[in-house]
Amino acid sequence: MSLHILSLLSFDPPAFLYQEYRDTSKQQEIEQRRQRENLSPGVKAGSVVAGSGVISPPVLQLQLRNSAQSLSLWQNLEAVQASGLLTQLPHKEIIMQEAMFELVTSEASYYKSLEILETHFLRNPVLINTLSQSDMHFLFSNIEEVMKASERFLMDLEHRIEESILISDVCDIVCYHAVEHFSVFIKYVINQVYQEKNYRQGNQAFREAMAALENHPRVRGLSFTSFLILPFQRITRLKLLVQNILKKAEENTDREANAIKAHQQLEQIVKECNEGVRKMSRTEELISIEKTLEFKSKSVPIISHSRWLLKKGEVQLMAGPKSTRTMRSRKLYQPVYLFLFNNLLLVTKRSGDKFQVLDSCTRAMLRTEDLEDQGQLLASVFNLRLLENQEERPVSYMLKTSSMSDKLRWMCALTPNRRTRFMSTSAHQPDSPQVQCIQSYSSQEPDELSTEMADILNLLERTDDGWMMGERLHDGERGWFPSRIVEEIQSKEVRAQNLREAFRIQQAHESGAGQTGGRSGLRVGRRTPKVSSFSNPWTDQMGDSSEVNQ
Known about the structure:
Layout: H1 18-36, H2 78-83, H3 85-88, H4 91-122, H5 125-130, H6 133-140, H7 143-163, H8 171-180, H9 183-190, H10 192-200, H11 204-214, H12 224-228, H13 230-248, H14 254-290, E1 293-295, E2 309-318, H15 324-327, E3 333-341, E4 345-351, E5 354-361, E6 366-370, E7 381-386, E8 395-400, H16 404-414, E9 434-437, E10 456-462, E11 467-472, E12 478-482, E13 486-488, H17 492-511
Parallel strand pairs: 1-5
Antiparallel strand pairs: 2-3, 2-8, 3-4, 4-5, 6-7, 7-8, 9-10, 9-13, 10-11, 11-12
Helix pairs in contact: 1-4, 4-7, 4-13, 6-10, 8-14, 9-14, 13-14
Protein name: Neuronal guanine nucleotide exchange factor
Organism: Amphiprion ocellaris (Clown anemonefish)
Pfam families: RhoGEF, SH3_1
């Protein structure tokens, strides 16, 4: 496939893969928000922001090989500059053109990385000889179907831009392909659980062949797994790009309607991807846990389609008299291991590789009480009340955790309706603390939240030892994350704008809930991309195209 659209990019396509493009784009989002806050670039990392009392974490520097180059902008195209459009169009329309142009150019970069996954890894004869056909299928899944869907999508985006340098819309094309072709993403993402297992369990010949392929200059030092996860990264990023267009679209226009439809379709695909992955991993986790449990009396069935693990770990159970003198004694505390599911709590005692179940209770019948205000000795201690345990009677446990943050995380997990320090966005509070992620983070525990660079989160809780709990604005997901990966948004105006944009997305999604995407009104077609460039030929075709078609 001859990717004409790659000629639009201001960087050398083979040198700027999607992984690098994506990180650079997110870094630019962060910098744009900093500029909106009028943050001085001369402020040193770790310095105190005036009047805030908050220490700003160090600004992370991306180690990109093309860090000196910026992403291509629509307004920098020679054809656009020669057309005079930049002096004719309102500033809002130029911003909209940039948002749509980013969706197209990032798709081209994504497809370039997919090509490397196919030609450099999937088709490599040395790698093929190290695995059986079934292993190859598990490892690469239906990546060829994903590539075909992505190729069709990119061709239609390319066709739209070739119609006019003034982009009319892209969300109608997104919606069409989401409905007709993007279901292949769901199968691929769900199979990633098997991909990871197969990759880790590869034989020696496979590992040697893979090491050689990863060291090849063509992949620019990127790992094989960074290529494997591209489809899910792209479908989630595509949803955010459409969301960005929706934020900028004028209300009650065709652009807004198409963006709403496209966003709904992508939201459903991402939801099915997440649910599929979670269902498989949760079931495997429940099976693994059940094998380690030993019930002394009444056995509780663990494996259920409606059950999943929220948090597990060891805490110290206080036993005996609760005097100040005995609190200093280590003998006062006995280790217990808690398994907290979404609808059940198990209190167990570890015995080798097994866990003896001491007590259990439904999650709805749990209550917690913080004892921090009763003295320093109880700073990391809290009361856990089981209103009705496995013996159908109330019982109370005094538990000590390893840190203040661990105590707060347990209390939030055990009693989810407990009031947090700061309010959720769903409470429609006019202003509340917000942070933006300056570093990606992969969750290490079930109660943690995986984040991406440039994510905006509403802050719900924070601890003195470096942890925060937040609610991501674009999808409402909650969880804990280390404070070192975020910086606080100081400007009240920027926080208010973030909330308005999130609320608009929510309203648009709800108002269009009954709508479905389809083929109507979409001008898409199969063809071979033309070998041409964005130059003078289009400047002679402006005519009516200088008016925005909404």
